[in-house]
Write the C-alpha cells for this entry.
Amino acid sequence: MNRTKDLLTQTQADEFGQASAVLLSQGSQALPTGIKERLYAARMKALSVRKAEKVWIQKPVLASSSGTWSFSSRSTWDTLGWVAPLVVLVFGLIGIAQWQEDSRINDIAEVDAALLSDDVPPDAYADSGFLGFLKNGGIADTSSDSSSSLQSK
Amino acid sequence: MASAQELSVFLSSVEQRAFKQAVYAVRDDDAALDIVQDAMIKLAEKYGDRPAAELPLVFTRILQNRIHDWFRRQKVRNTWVTLFSNMGKKSDENDDFDPLESLSAPDDSEIHQDGGRKLERSQLLQALESEISKLPARQREAFLMRYWDELSITDTAKAMSCSEGSVKTHCSRATQALAKALKLKGITL
C-alpha cells in the first residue's frame, strides 16, 4: 500500500524531471573557471577540425556578343573531350575482338588443311583400332615384319 | 547543413551540460573533460556537415558512446591493476567508495556572499547530483536525456539503442528513485 502511495503519477514524474532539469542547468552554469576554459579550448579544437562544407563552384562565363557561341563551343569541346576517347576505346575493343576471331579461324583452317592433305584419312583418327595400331609400333614395325617374312621365304 | 557558426553555438550551448553528464557517469573531472573533448571533436570531424537540427541527437549519442568506451577501458585497466595489486599488498580502499565523498563542495565564500537562498539551492543541487550519480547507468542516461537534453522518447531510444518502452521504463524508475531518495532527505522539488 505504502509503495503504491509513494509512486509518482506520470504528470508528477514529468514535473519532477523538469524541476530537476532546471536545477541541473543552473548548477552547470556555475562551473569553475578552469573547467570552463578547458571546455572552451576543447570547443576551439573541435571547430578547427570541422568537416569542410562541400562548395559547388560554377564556372564563370563571359557575357559578350559571342558569349552564347563561345559557351556552346566550349560545351561541345567538353563533350568531345570525354566522348572521343570513349568512341576510340569501343572501336579498339571491337577491332581486337575481330582480330582474335580471325586468328582463331585461321588456326582451325590450318589444322583442317593439314589433316586433309595428310596420307592418313581423317576418319582413321576416329578408329580405335588405328590408335591401337599406332601405339603398338605403327608402320615401322609392320614393314620390318613384312621384310623378315620375305627373307624367310 | 550546419555552418561553422551554428556548430560553435551548438557546442557552447551543450558543453557544460555534457561535462556534468560525463561527471555524473565517470565521477572524475579530468576524465569527463577528455570525454567531452573527444565527443566534440568527433562531432565536428565526422558530422560537421549535418543539418543543425540533427546535431543534438548525434552529439548525445557520441557522448554516451564515449562514456561507455571509457568504462570499457577502465574495466580492462582495472583487471590488470587488480591482478598486479593482488600480488603485492592487499588493498580494500575502493570497497567503501561513497559517491558523496567524490563530489567537490562549492566554494563557501561565494555561498556566504550570495546568502542563504543560494546555499539552499546549492545543497539541493548537491543532493540531486549525488542521487543522480547513484542511479544505474541506463536509468541515469534515460532521465538526463529526456528531461535535461529534452529529447523525445523516440530520439532517446535512438540514442540509447533500445526500444521506446525501455526508455519509458528506465525514465520512470529513475524519477521514482530520485524522488524517493530526496524525500528521505526531506527534499521536495
User: Anything to note?
Assistant: Chain B has a mean pLDDT of 84. Chain B touches chain A through 47 residues (CB under 8 Å).
